[in-house]
Amino acid sequence: MTERLTAAQVDRAAELLRAGALVAFPTETVYGLGGDATDDRAVAAIFAAKERPRFNPLIVHVTDLAAAEPLASFDARARDLVRRFWPGPLTLVLQRSVACPVSALASAGLDTVALRAPAHALAQALLRAVGRPVAAPSANRSGRVSPTTAGHVLAELDDRIAAVLDGGPCRVGIESTVLDLTQTPPALLRPGGVTREQLEATLGPLTAAGAGAPRAPGMLERHYAPVRPLRLQATTVAADEALLAFGEPLRGAAATINLSPTGDLVEAAANLFAALRALDQPHFRAIAVMPVPERGLGAAINDRLRRAARGRAD
Ligand code: TXA
Ligand code: MG
To answer: Which of 4, 144, 266, 309 could disulfide-pair with 140, CB 3.0 to 4.6 Å?
Structure first.
């Protein structure tokens, strides 16, 4: 059963998160479905709990600029926005730092990471107690509306998550604004709590989501794709191919990484992007990918594999 925790039980919520469990928590916008952003399995479990059909990248929550700086590259413009709007409903998409400890799955394999410091006092207390970045999409099942009370969260996710931290109703009620600073001019990927006018006063004109910026939320077309061709549904493997295995591996590949020897889809999701990168080496002719079942997280894994197989062109 999902534990319902009060504000006095922040330490319990933090302890669960540090142990890799999922905890929903209030922010000023909506409730987030939190997991340790540095733990691949916890991040995979977020997608499983939400039944997301795709691995869209998740927002990573931090207390402040000092906690965010080691994760991504902040230029003067990013710092300026942070000074004005953090903590608050503004999410910045930035280049991941080389040593960024955030799970590749939370970035959906991209070289970027979305960061936000929430303004809610309980969220801040939780993040301080966890001492690590926390990945959190809105705490609803895929395709449903975002929850603004602990009751909404339980209606959607009871028994699927370890706990919900009850902070009462959310003040803003709509999600944070998502601003991509890796594009020039910066692209507004999702309108939200901080308005376009507020941002343009600092940045000058922005590119609208959709208008030449194909990274609109939910329609995220830019995605991680390996340079080597991907051969899906492989039932045999050649000696000059690398093998991305699932379950009992095929024999004879030049190199093999197994997403999950036991056929565990959460484990497979957790390993997916790191495995693809590791096998994407010039001395392999192609990457042969064994079939992954369509059930549960398998649907999202197969979606990403199909996109990766189509390559960088789309
Ligand atoms: O208000 C909010 O932002 C809530 C609360 C819980 O903080 N969180 C939230 O997270 O709405 P989520 O994961 O549902 O929204 C993530 C949005 C998606 O539209 C996604 O496409 C975009 O941010 N996003 C995340 N990382 C990205 C990246 N690296 N590049 C482009 N877009 C990214
Ligand atoms: Mg959402």
So the answer is: 144
- Site to probe by mutation for ligand 1, drawn from 46, 61, 91 as the one with most ligand atoms within 8 Å of Cβ, is 91
**Residue that is written with structure tokens 């009060």 in the block:** 6
Q: Is 93 exposed, middle or buried (0-12, 13-18, 19+ CB in 10 A)?
A: buried
Instruction: Give me the pLDDT at residue 206, please.
Output: 87
Using CB atoms within 10 A of its CB, is residue 229 exposed (0-12), middle (13-18) or buried (19+)? middle
Q: What are the residues whose beta carbon lies below 5 Å from ligand 2 (ion)?
A: 138
**All domains of the chain, ordered by start, with CATH?**
3-208 (3.90.870.10), 230-309 (3.40.50.11030)
CA pair distance 192, 29, nearest whole angstrom? 9
Does the reported pTM lie above 0.85?
Answer: yes
- Please, are residues 87 and 67 in contact by the beta-carbon 8 Å criterion? no
The per-residue DSSP string of 52-73 comes to -SS----EEE-SSHHHHTTTB-
Q: What is the mean pLDDT of each run of 10 residues along the chain (314 residues)?
A: 96 98 97 98 97 91 98 96 97 97 96 97 98 97 90 95 97 92 91 89 79 44 79 98 98 97 95 91 96 91 88 46
